Amino acid sequence: MKKEDRREQKKVTYKEARVYLDEMSKYGSVLGLDTIRGLLRELGNPQESLKFIHIAGTNGKGSVLAYTSTILSEAGYRIGRYVSPTVISYLERIQMNGRWISEEEFAELTEKVKEAIARLKAAGENLPTVFETETAIAFLYFRKMNCDFVVLETGLGGELDATNIVKNTVCAVFATISRDHLGVIGNTLEEIAQTKAGIIKNGCAVVSAQQKETVSEILKKRAEASDCSYREADLSRFLVEKEDYHGIRFSYKEYKNLRGSLAGECQIANLATALEVIRTLNALGISVPETAVRKGLEETRWPGRFTFLMEHPVFLVDGAHNEDAAQKLRMSMERYFPGRRLILILGVFKDKEYEKIVSILCPLAQQVYTVDLPNVERTLPAEKLAECAKKYCRQTAAAGRIEDAVEKAMKAAERAGQRTADSEASAADGEPVILACGSLSYLGDVIRLVEKSYGTRTRGTGKEEK
After folding, report:
1. What does the pLDDT average to over 133-137?
2. Is the pLDDT of residue 286 over 80?
3. How far apart are CA 397 and CA 385, in angstroms?
């Protein structure tokens, strides 16, 4: 047998790569940069040849990333994306110009990183976490693809997050910062903001969403100390011209009559922040024409963030996983569907502010179905979540399985719609709206179920209609 044939047989498959990483995930996560620094050094420091737009925040950083990267792609740049968590597929987390990394490329790069980790282990050095390993794989891919810029989303926090190993930050961006991961990255809003501000590098540009005053002061001071320019989105200059659950038509500063393809209360802040990033890049001499801005906003897709799946009945999914996101989701539902009946599918992690999420959203619902999340270690059991929800909506049931919850919600909506047709009741009393929300981790399953079972009626996830 030739040497080439032997090497071919040893190649890691995508399935084997995923098993390897799943095994690593059992060991949890550790904040700090020493371990990933050692791993990247072993791999030739691929991140040092890349330029970054680094995004931190509590809510909205994924949408800001989606807008920014799509606009820059439309402007002709080669743009890498690194995001987490994912909704549709594991491969979503590493993209180039909106296209996911292939299974073959992912397996090939995982094998390289696995070999590097084996060398570290043999040398008695600390071994990386799964997120650090995935980050290293992403950097190798972006270098291989000769990306002009990488739009990089932090994982947990900022200063000690594995993504903060990067040095060549062109722009540090902050989506809305609120209280989340208490006790992990800080015990107060101010401590959390200080941690997230750690992505600011000397001399880079800094762009922020409109923040609470204490958060703004922290970001401004860090920017000033690091000799950075600072811009903050100005929502007083954001004019909504028309909006519904399909998107927003608006103007912002010099940009007139734009259309954002994502809907929801939170998208106003996210759109303004993304446009401030583009204005900043133009000021730095990185040309982004208005035509690219217009097309980029219209072409942006971000599944799981107030995503419209279906018209009859209206079926939406949204990853509102904390108090601030739940408040914005409630505002969106009240704005777009005033007086309409709501059937809620809800699943949350036990380490989130689930009682606050429930108290905000469940009073809107006429029926609630709770589910167990795929991550059995972190999920709040459906039965316990149902007990909490019953305080606000008496017609609450623990569905358990996601499939059962979707089926029950669809049947309940069809029964209510039929009763309305028979009685000629008003539209507000008619066909309900179904909303699946809480953790992003199960929304991909919901999207797949709806598309598979009701595909002829679905649209809005960025895929072609069936």
Report:
1. 97
2. yes
3. 9
Are 169 and 142 contacting, i.e. CB atoms less than 8 angstroms apart? no
Compute the average pLDDT of residues 180-185: 55
Q: Give pTM, 2 decimals.
A: 0.87
Helix axes 34-42 and 103-122, enclosed angle (nearest 10): 110
User: Which parts of 264-346 fold into alpha helices (H)?
Assistant: 267-283, 290-299, 323-336
Kindly report the backbone phi and psi dihedral angles of residue 260, in degrees, each rounded to the nearest multiple of 5, phi listed first: -95, 130
Alpha-carbon distance values, 394 to 363, 367, 386, 387 (Å): 10, 8, 10, 10
Strand 79-82 and strand 149-153: the pairing is: parallel
* pLDDT (0 to 100) of residue 253: 97
Alpha-carbon gap, residue 98 to 296, rounded angstroms: 11
For tokens 């737009």, what's the residue? 53
Q: Are strands 247-252 and 255-260 parallel, antiparallel or unpaired?
A: antiparallel
CB 322 within 8 A of CB 178: yes
Q: Which residue has the tokens 């600011």?
A: 200
Number of H helices, E strands in the chain: 15, 17
Give me the pLDDT at residue 274, please: 98
How many percent of the chain have pLDDT more than 70?
90
Question: For position 459, what pLDDT does the model report?
Answer: 45
Looking at the DSSP assignment, which residues form a beta bridge with residue 307? 317
pLDDT, average across residues 20-41: 86
Element spanning 319, H or E: none
Find the radius of gyration of the CA atoms of the chain: 23
Token pair for 268? 């106003």
Q: Given a cut of 70, is residue 270 above it in pLDDT?
A: yes
Q: In whole numbers, what is the pLDDT of the chain averaged over residues?
A: 90
C-alpha to C-alpha distance for 380 and 166, rounded to whole angstroms = 35
Residues in the chain: 466
CA–CA separation, 168 vs 405, rounded Å?
46
**H/E run at residue 240:** strand 238-244
Q: 142 near 46, Cβ under 8 Å?
A: yes
What's the confidence (pLDDT) of residue 266? 87
Calpha distance 22→28 (Å, rounded): 11
The answer to whether the CB of 135 falls within 8 A of the CB of 93 is: no
Helix residue ranges per DSSP H, 93-129: 103-122
